[in-house]
């Protein structure tokens, strides 16, 4: 980390000297939306979060019109929840409790209520989230193949995927000097340079690089080395970097946080750990942002997913042309194409890690949000699912996109702003699968999950629907075409 801190003045200097964004009008666009080219490094890290409250309204507006995609595992779903939290002011009745929890079971890790307070709504309806996970090699290959097939970037102005903390376990090769993501290996689908060749085919779109998510246990040598390699790469090649690992590993006051193998007892109120000190401080997610002992989900408390959602808005405002340093408007310059900068590999310390057992199981299906119905209400206060349709499509030979469109109604009328929660099952595993945003004005929302073609199909099941002033009554669920029963549908391209 220290090396990285030394780079900060350099980054700031680069940003101050050359703040150049080239804008291109997108024709045929109903709104005045901009696609853009970045030729300076834009690093969004824990120091960027405080810029959120300074984004001018005009740039919030511009940013909200960029079409953005991020693909990720379960922590990405938490981040997606954080973006939904910001849709309304924190004081609004539409903002759920899970967005505003500043207390931690251990009061030392509670945060200031201002961390989960914001005063306006941020429309993220153009920001899409898709589940996407596998080994890091498979993810790299599948993303590249999806680009070759034209699936990505598609209509997106800004597109990305994140490696999760389960891609940087002790056994992962992702940070290896000769076999990792930043090694220029023979073969066309296995490293960042192969990805860059495709990115270069879309100079009017922005690919966002991410550092990994982190957990309490990961924090290890692989996550530290990979994330440092990613930072060096982004700076050397004028990339946009969403440094989630940096945001997660600093508490709101800016103090660094390290892995749980520290000889310090810790309890979240239910379970505890007391791993011996392994002698190395690996950057890891702060207790302030997760209630897990070894994992790193951002469900409750709220500050982690809110801070990352704020950082995404800062990034999108930057991409829309906002210059927080107040420098004069940039003039177009030549697009700097990425050079095959060799990544200075950080010498692995090979400190033997003590056997720390409970790595969070990769099978998600974590907390499926179960709402507590406020009171038994009847008649027109009841909501239900009145249609589910299969909108699945093929991505490539390895993956298809299982997509369901859900229609929520009450008393025969569409209900907007309803949250639809569900699960998806394939290959005998069940995962959380919620609509990424609440239902629109026509009562529709979509669930989208990337599924390996080894599964012939996937079954989506609605587990609950919530909306202010309504009570979910699943016995009223139905489907006019009979392709579902209103609760469950089989999805296949
Ligand atoms: Ca290669
Ligand atoms: Ca500990
Ligand atoms: Ca340690
Ligand atoms: Ca249907």
List the helices and strands and how they pair.
Layout lengths: L1 H16 L3 E5 L8 E5 L3 E3 L12 H8 L3 E5 L1 H12 L41 E5 L4 H13 L9 E4 L30 H8 L6 E5 L10 H16 L3 E3 L1 H5 L17 E2 L4 E2 L29 H17 L62 E9 L2 E2 L4 E12 L2 E2 L4 E8 L2 E4 L11 E9 L5 E9 L4 E2 L15 E4 L2
Helix pairs in contact: 2-8, 3-8, 4-5
Give a description of the structure.
- It is a single chain.
- This protein has 493 residues and is an alpha/beta fold.
- The protein folds into two domains: 2-319, SGNH hydrolase (Rossmann fold); 379-491, Sandwich (Immunoglobulin-like), CATH 2.60.40.
- 19% of the residues lie in helices and 20% in strands.
- The protein starts with a helix and ends with a strand.
- The structure holds calcium ion (4 copies).
- One calcium ion binds next to helix 5.
Characteristic key phrases:
493 residues, alpha/beta, Rossmann fold, Immunoglobulin-like, 2 domains, 6-stranded parallel β-sheet, 6-stranded mixed β-sheet, 20 strands, 19% helix, binds calcium ion
- Report the portion of residues in β strands: 15-25%
Sheet/helix structural class: alpha/beta
Helical percentage: 10-25%
- CATH homology group of the largest domain: SGNH hydrolase
Q: How many individual β-strands?
A: 20
